[in-house]
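One example given next:
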Amino acid sequence: MNRGQGGESTAFAVLAAISFSHLLNDTIQALVPSIYPLLKSAFALSFAQVGLMTLTLQVTASLLQPVIGHYTDRRPTPYSLVIGMGVTLAGVLLLSIAGTFAVLLVAAGLMGVGSAVFHPESSRVARMASGGRHGLAQSLFQVGGNAGSSFGPLLAAFLVAPRGQPAVAWCAPLALVAMAVLWRIGRWYKTRPAAPSRPPSHAGPDGALRRVGWPLAILGALIFSKYFYLASLNSYYTFYLIDKFHVSVRTAQIHLFIFLAAAAAGTILGGPIGDRFGRKYVIWGSIFGVLPFTLALPYANLFWTPVLAIVIGLVIASAFSAIVVYAQELVPGRVGLISGVFFGFAFGMGGLGAAVLGVLADRAGIGTVYKLCAFLPMLGALAAFLPDVDAGTVHRATVHRAP
């Protein structure tokens, strides 16, 4: 263990375990959009129906995460992570045998519920193990998830695509391994002292709400920009490549893996840089800074398209861990609620984006989706209005003053 802020120990073994669990969870979650070309063909789905699957997956997670986070702030539940992964396992098995579009939606919904249980509590575990190095811990946690998201297309390309929908069940062992790891994490979590569930009583709630409300609204707008744009890549990048460049399904899935791997690599940068130089600058640069590349992407050839996608993934992925830690410090004592709200809102925007963009793709073509979405990172300019404070003074400047 290393020492973080205030001499606390950073539990790297726990961080590695929760990051690995995040990898397994998000590998399974990423399998769903990765097999959309297969499902679209097998069930004769429209782009709107493809988007509805993503909406179901993401919105179930989006609506439940804040509720679960709020509950676990008051009553920590160390073994809820195992239960959540069990629900994900049920979704995987149902997806492998689904015979109708309605059953596909139920399977996606179960996987969304599992994700809703996983993210708020696992984010709390990462913060508990951080030893005060909150940005680093959140980045290590996030890089596991983004790495897992990048593996989903590989499973689709080399496992599911050659064998068909029943091969989805072969991913069930990933959930079982995750449940075993999460059980061990739950035992560690159970021994930790409970953090205070409320901010200090001398905090002025009305003043605090006014001071915190504006930064939280800006962060929400940035989450909308980031995840609405990412929905165009996560859900439709394979279709875009197939439609524009006439590549095979497997080649398109490999390109999706390359993009998601770049996003995973970018995730690790945001937290440590934010710890050192301030999270505002990471948030600003990672969203607004990606604008030139998103504007160029719809007009690039087959060589430059994956190059631009790699740059977009590297840059834009660094924002989320910085956003989550920034928000946690704005509202101290509400780690579960804030994690649930921001993970949930991110998932919700991803799902809503997929649904809206699916309708747009049906009506105007997949190329139009990328031309319009290219302007979304302009909202990153709003980060300039975030309070210019460092990690150690965010909550003092915006929430309460010590007596």
About this structure: The longest strand covers residues 2-3. The chain is about 75% helix and 0% strand.
